[in-house]
Amino acid sequence: MKITYYGHSCFSVFAGGKHILFDPYISGNELAKDINIEEIKADYIFISHGHFDHMLDAVAIANRAGATIVGIWELYNYFNAQGVKNVFPLNPGGKATFDFGVAKAVSAQHSASFSDGSYAGVASGFVLKTDDGNFYYSGDTGLTLDMTLIPKWADLDFAVFPVGDVLTMGVEDAIEAANFVKTTKVLGVHYDTFGFIKLDKSEAIAEFEKSGITLYLPEIGSEIDIATR
């Protein structure tokens, strides 16, 4: 399955013949200064929660590409108010069928607010089942036993976890999360963007390897291919 990493927690998966983008925060990220958001392909944009570093470029990309934004009810209302033409509500516990496959929203343990401090609902993660493979994006979260429910619904080919610590899980908890969801392949996100979430990449990769898990930390703007079953 082809994955493009755009920095912080933003990545795109090409699955079911569609470009599925997650948490677009690019134009405000100095580390992603070489990424042109006008060139990003997106049929769907999944937003895990309302913090600026997960949705800054969602409106611009959605309106240009005609993409459908998917998120909790509060985000559904927010993006409708921003004039986005295609928005779909998906709260934790709910699932919906799209033309790429099925997506289920799941709980995430994290705060959420819009840039003005107003209420942005709860944070969530997403599990996607497609003909090309299944994967779980936890969104910003701490380690939670709710993750043990994920493999009851989907046999995962890989998972996407934050590894930067402080604001989310760090390496140790992300390894445990991989065990909870029964995967040996993890794409690490949410690190290096801010001074307090710097990651020693080689050390993180080694720690995952000790547990029999492959940690992918691609360069910003690069594409990787994770083999699926």
UniProtKB/TrEMBL annotation:
GO MF term list: hydrolase activity
Domain of life: Bacteria
InterPro entries given in the database record: Metallo-B-lactamas, RibonucZ/Hydroxyglut_hydro, UPF0173_UPF0282_UlaG_hydrolase
Keywords per UniProt: Hydrolase
Pfam entry (one): Lactamase_B_3
Domain Metallo-beta-lactamase stretches: 7-190
Residue ranges that the Swiss-Prot or TrEMBL entry lists as coiled coil: none
Name of this protein: Metal-dependent hydrolase
Biological source species: Dyadobacter subterraneus
